[in-house]
DNA sequence: TTGTACGCGTTATCAT
DNA sequence: ATGATAACGCGTACAA
């Protein structure tokens, strides 16, 4: 099996030195047009491609950014990954994808991989790394971005959605629709953002002297939504408004309500979700929900990676709180 | 900003030679337990991690596998990516993710990136690379896997689903349900697998002397399904059976039929899809569809990468044709 | 078993 | 503008 072509071979074929080849491929280096031309021709003929691994060895910049994520098959996650990889490519970086599960140390192992491959940065979409690992990454000059994670360690950039504010806004919408029995559908996962939505909703209701029935089950998916709906809709005081921690839960809740309990949405029951996944706009759901500013999240994350390293910024706490836009559809009365 | 820890530093701290450190991290190397212990302790204390980039420089194995894919936010694609990344990680490899679009040369650029990073292999889920690029990859010892692509170049492993056979199976199901007016819903994308389903369906029907109405529109998504349905269901001879090129189209078709045309599924109209995405099982759809053996695809792809390089295998044509399982739900009468 | 010396492909530095 | 040489961090043949 033939090896990759090296700059050495190109140099020989072009009749120049290795350094000339290197310069020809370095933007803004001082090479004569003639030399550059001869090098490029030879490179093309031989099928030469700069070895980024070796380059990274010298420059200490691999161009690699690690995406650490669990449940990557989920609509919201995959759309976020799409946006981020796209932005990364536009910035000349490349994404490494590492799948994590809920097991202990899964994220830590992923970050170790990031270090192994000398990733310039890691973007964590799921789970939370151990403090020691975070420090290890930062100490090695690796930038860190935490998306929708709740962590108070200094160093990483944290990008969050203002979940509490959104929760209080949806409460207002429910009240305006004349809802009386409020409920919140959640999973047992307990992710910070999911919990913030729950707490924000409960708190906002409490401020109005209203109690909220909270039900949690399983992971944050469609099936869990069905189970939660089953529990909520068989209660003696049946809810007429359910705020769901995310759209998948909401779809499950809505389907259970309609097909299993023959409850009309939004006439008898108002439902709201979170994320604005594609399915939320499908005719069968027409789900009123909050759109996370996916593109903005991706842009900010990548911009942070590209920004010049402020010296000794390890002490600074960078945090971004983004606004979720309420997308009004048909699952809440009025509007 | 501090640099990464090198084997040199570990060696000094442990009071051994640098090669001893290297050996301590090389499985099956000859190191005394005592030395290994001292090295490991020092490494742990310093936070040392082997530099895979430099290692790849020596061994000519980066451990990197490129995943080249478009429309990564789509349910089926993302589930496939999930399965593959999982399998790769289990094999000690790591995935690089490259997003492509439909523009010319997008896949070629992605493969060039794969070469830049000296990926051991590339798995192509979307588009089709130029023959010259394919040859370049193979010549450089990079393994290639084409999933659901139609390509007759020798060298790469091709994994396909038997679309034609599936299409003829679903025709049988339609006939058994007593359907008379057959239609096929497709996009204008013209991907080999999509076209194989269309042609297979049309051909199987023709063999029975039945004509199929084919309608194509836009990209292979939900909205396109709605448009296609609109066209099909306003025809004078309205179809009572629609086979859709994939589940997203099918969901769009079904929603349009029910909500827009007040047509009952499956009583007045039978619908089938392809892929068995999660949404197909949701109560609002209960879509009868074909499940692609995602796990098997991923396993076979990764197994091929891990298999020892047969000498001069460039001439051999490796091809896998997998069976799609018919998942029977409620969108076709009978069953 | 352990250490020395070299090479992997690249960029950076320093002459010229 | 160009070429020679060092250095990056690692694996390994070879010698001890």
TrEMBL record, chains A, B:
Keywords, comma-separated and alphabetical: DNA-binding, Repressor, Transcription, Transcription regulation
Ranges for domain HTH lacI-type: 5-59
Stored Gene3D superfamilies: 3.40.50.2300, lambda repressor-like DNA-binding domains
UniProt entry tagged with the keyword Metal-binding: no
A Pfam family matched in the record: LacI
One GO MF term attached to the UniProt entry: DNA-binding transcription factor activity
Protein name listed in UniProt: DNA-binding LacI/PurR family transcriptional regulator
